[in-house]
Specification:
The chain is α+β, with helices and mostly antiparallel strands. The chain folds into 2 domains: 111 residues, Alpha-Beta Plaits, CATH 3.30.70; 166 residues, no CATH class. The strands form 4 sheets. Strands 9, 10, 11, 12, 13 and 14 form a 6-stranded antiparallel β-sheet that branches. Strand 4 and strand 5 form a beta hairpin. Helix 1 packs antiparallel against helix 2.
Length: 300
């Protein structure tokens, strides 16, 4: 086994006002060990500050690593510290390069600003909410909920142990918008299969459901699914009821969730086409994705 460590001594961290030495758990690491077929397996835990999370996660995923967890360890830490677990299998060169590029992205963020950002970039979001529901209903192809100028769209539901569970049990896909039509925060959950989470088909015969929370506050950030495109590009699969694409009129920058959902849309499109071919005459039908990302139902 080969292990490398990178203490985060570039930013001073305090917990309850007391300085924290990297020895107390503020050290990024990656460990490599032999795997099958002359390949290696890598596992690691990267210590990240809030403004590093989205760029580092995108770098890891774009270079073939898996991100298996993102969480914190401390209460009352300043600045806030997050821990991102990574993993993967492949050649030593590919895995080492992927880890290096992820760490380099962190260094790039700190080189541009030595201290972690305390807020997202962009203009301040008005406190008063005034989201216009009708355009979002049309784009998302659902009838959303409206409350005090805010908007929420509900998508996929799920089943556990053969029983339906939904929004009252917090197991459903949803996205909520606040602020104004031109500048807004959006947050929500995506319920998806394990194969959809990674944007590719899983060989598992017992696929598990996972829920991904994204919170791009002030139009940007951890979820990063806000873009400067002229419209919200989203759709709900009415047979599988999955949100498979999300952009926004809102200010911000492309990021992790938008990229992952694009991969999810491609995965669902491929699987739906195969499913349509397999369905026999007289079946209830299937769904397919058109070039714009909108789902349409086809009956056999």
């Amino acid at each position: 086994m080969y292990r490398v460590s990178f203490p985060r001594n570039d930013v001073a961290v305090k917990v309850e006002g007391r300085s924290m030495h990297p020895f107390l758990g503020l050290t990024s690491w990656a460990a490599f060990t032999p795997h099958s077929n002359n390949q290696l397996m890598v596992l690691g835990d990267l210590v990240l500050f809030e403004d590093e999370v989205n760029p580092a996660m995108s770098a890891a995923l774009d270079n073939g690593l898996e991100v298996t967890a993102l969480h914190d360890h401390f209460f009352f830490d300043t600045p806030r510290v997050m821990f991102m677990h990574i993993g993967g299998t492949g050649s030593a060169e590919r895995l080492a390069t992927a880890v290096r590029r992820t760490l380099d992205k962190v260094k790039e963020i700190r080189a541009s600003n030595a201290q972690p950002a305390g807020k997202f970039e962009g203009a301040a979001i008005p406190d008063r909410n005034s989201i216009t529901a009708a355009p979002l209903d049309t784009i998302l192809d659902v009838k959303g909920q409206v409350n005090a100028g805010m908007y929420k769209a509900i998508g996929r539901k799920a089943a556990m142990h053969g029983h339906s569970v939904g929004n009252q049990m917090e197991v459903n896909t949803w996205a909520a918008f606040a602020g104004t039509d031109n500048a807004a925060p959006v947050d929500g959950d995506f319920v998806m299969l394990e194969s959809e989470l990674r944007g590719r088909h899983s060989q598992s015969h017992d696929p598990r459901r996972a829920s991904v929370r994204f919170s791009p506050l002030l139009g940007q950030g951890a979820g990063g699914c806000i873009s400067q495109s002229p419209e919200v590009g989203a759709c709900f699969d009415r047979s599988a009821s999955a949100v498979v694409g999300l952009g926004s009129t809102l200010t911000g920058a492309d990021g992790y969730v938008r990229n992952r959902l694009r991969a999810l849309r491609e995965t669902r499109s491929s699987k739906d086409r195969r499913r349509c071919r397999r369905l026999s005459r007289g079946s209830t039908g299937c769904s397919a994705v058109d070039e714009t990302g909108s789902f349409r139902s086809r009956r056999r």
